[in-house]
Automatic annotation (TrEMBL), chain A:
Renumbered residue ranges of the record's region Disordered: 1-20
A Pfam cross-reference name: DUF742
Name listed for the protein in its UniProt record: DUF742 domain-containing protein
Chain coiled-coil ranges: none
Family matches, as InterPro entries: DUF742, WH_DNA-bd_sf
Length: 124, 207
């Protein structure tokens, strides 16, 4: 393709390029497609926390008994979102939790959503 | 942290949980300089006590600004306060407060993706921050309304002057608000929704 950035081509990076550092985790190596996690993706547990889970993972499963946003989980665990996301990806691919994605992004929001929000705000 | 058991993570209080029927969320971003009242606004309308989520500014995010005075390899943690309003049994609205200064714009990518729109809280004591924020939102195509938080002791200007100073289009709603007052904060969110509604339903006429 014309004008494509050369650094997108495999093998085009200069050897020893220090910008290309990857951290591999079990989550990253799984074959299943990854769910994009937004700050307001709602996470809900699908299983009981199993004793083999790491404490943070078990805590996620426990607190997502009822739906909680990624932002709320991050707040309760006191973990940055960037640290939490790989954990959630792992739990998702293991089927421990499910993700309810936010209302899909569009150029402009859906009128029905806006009406619902206005209706909800009126009750405040 | 290595020694914490999963039970030591608090999680939400029972009254702060969402119903199991909650299926989707939307978000609105509140942008403004430090101390302009973002967290106060979020707290005034949120059904939960505002929570804090953190993001770490890594080396990759540094390019957006000259980090004068910040040493190389320093990781900066930026906190965002947020709150929640259950709209109905299925739909939840989240409000995120985010600092307006350019060096925090690295947070905006994930934050504004899919956001309904933004409320810019105008700081009449530091207009230049709001000016930059508005420019940036326009560039990103994020619809927004402007709230002028009535601070005791802050300089008061007529709306028309503020609008001119901000180089703000007449169509963008600009309203006085008191971030401590629930009704006032609801009104500004309502103004944003009405504005979005107008943008969505009225097709632009070429003249």
């Amino acid at each position: 393709m014309n004008g494509s950035r050369p650094d997108n081509e495999p093998g085009a990076e200069p050897p020893g390029n220090p910008d290309r550092l990857y951290i591999l985790s079990t989550a990253e190596t799984r074959a299943r497609p990854r769910t994009h996690l937004d700050l307001v993706t709602l996470i809900v547990s699908r299983a009981e926390p199993d004793p083999g889970l790491q404490p943070e993972h078990a805590a996620v499963v426990r607190m997502c008994d009822f739906p909680l946003s990624v932002a709320e989980i991050s707040a309760y665990l006191e973990l940055p979102v960037s640290t939490l996301t790989p954990m959630l990806t792992e739990l998702l691919s293991d089927g421990k939790v499910e993700a309810r994605p936010p209302v899909p992004a569009a150029a402009l929001p859906d009128v029905r959503i806006l009406e619902a929000v206005m209706h909800g705000l009126q009750k405040l | 942290m290595d020694y914490r058991s999963s039970e030591s993570y608090a999680g939400p209080r029972s009254e702060d949980t969402l119903p199991a029927t909650a299926t989707a969320a939307v978000k609105v971003v509140i942008v403004g300089g430090f101390g302009v009242g973002k967290t106060t606004l979020v707290g005034s309308v949120s059904e939960i006590r505002p929570l804090t989520t953190e993001e770490t500014m890594t080396q990759a995010g540094v390019g957006v600004d000259d980090l004068a005075g910040i040493e190389q390899k320093t990781e900066t943690t930026v906190a965002m306060d947020f709150g929640r309003i259950s709209i109905n049994d299925q739909l939840v609205l989240y409000l995120f407060g985010t600092p307006g200064q350019e060096r925090f714009w690295f947070l905006w990518n994930g934050l504004f993706e899919g956001a309904l729109g933004a409320v810019v809280l105008l700081d009449t004591r530091r207009m230049e921050v709001s000016y930059d924020v508005i420019g940036r939102l326009e560039e990103r195509g994020v619809p927004f309304v402007v709230g002028v938080n009535a601070f005791p002791g802050a300089p008061r200007y007529p709306m028309s002057e503020l609008r001119a100073a901000m180089d703000l289009d007449d169509s963008v709603p600009m309203i006085d608000c008191d971030a401590r007052d629930r009704a006032s904060c609801r009104d500004i969110l309502m103004a944003l929704m009405r504005y979005l509604y107008t943008l969505t339903t009225v097709s632009p006429e070429p003249q």
